[in-house]
Specification:
- With 205 residues, the protein is an all-alpha fold.
- The chain has one domain (26-201).
- It contains 8 helices and no strands.
- The chain is globular, with a radius of gyration of 21 Å.
- The relative contact order is 0.11.
């Protein structure tokens, strides 16, 4: 009887670019343009009669997002490197940047909910957080600022960020999901405490 040679399962594929590699610059350009339009809309609503250079301020805000994305991806890459795992940095950066489009979708849903029938506010809140259910655009409490966008879109972004890490390091989803969820919670708590601290330090009207 001939010995059979066991066939090993194919190793899991690593992290790929979110789009065809040659289209990555176009992806970045689209994300930057989309964020510029969103920030411009928000600034225009505040500075409508203030004569502020809205376009330039919007581009400055978009430019400020670049180091934020690079730092976020870098911290995850460093975390896994310290644990003997290599996360492909630039590919992960492209995923972090692309997933930020979910925030843009959340802003659009919240804007659309302002003029939507009341029964649609609950669906909007489920997708984009309590801010879509009639909460003020500029929340006055730390909890609202930190968790006002907590909806299915945010949960999906956390999940996909963890998924990209799991693919990149070649490990199951559990540990990356735990790390990503903890990182998201920590940043939200920092926002909560920072807003409440600033409110406490601001002079009473």
């Amino acid at each position: 009887m001939r010995d059979t040679i066991p066939i090993e399962a194919d190793p899991p594929p690593g992290l790929t670019w979110p789009v065809v590699a040659g289209a990555v610059p176009l992806l970045y350009a689209w994300i930057a343009w989309s964020w510029w339009g969103e920030v411009r809309l928000q600034l225009a609503a505040v500075a409508e009669n203030a004569g502020a250079p809205v376009d330039a301020m919007a581009w400055a805000a978009v430019a400020a997002r670049v180091p934020s994305v690079l730092t976020e991806a870098g911290l995850y890459a460093l975390w896994w490197k310290l644990r003997g795992r290599r996360l492909p940095y630039w590919r992960f950066v492209s995923w972090v940047a692309m997933l930020s489009a979910l925030d843009l979708l959340g802003f659009s849903i919240r804007r659309a909910a302002e003029d939507a029938p009341q029964w649609l506010h609950g669906l909007a809140a489920l997708l984009a957080g309590s801010a879509a259910a009639g909460a003020p655009a500029f929340p006055g409490t730390g909890t609202a600022a930190a968790f006002g966008n907590l909806g299915l879109l945010t949960l999906f972004r956390v999940f996909m960020t963890a998924w990209a890490q799991a693919r990149g390091i070649g490990r199951p989803l559990g540990a990356p999901l735990l790390v990503t969820g903890a990182a998201w919670l920590v940043t939200r708590l920092v926002v909560w405490w920072s807003v409440d601290l600033l409110r406490g330090l601001s002079p009473s009207p």
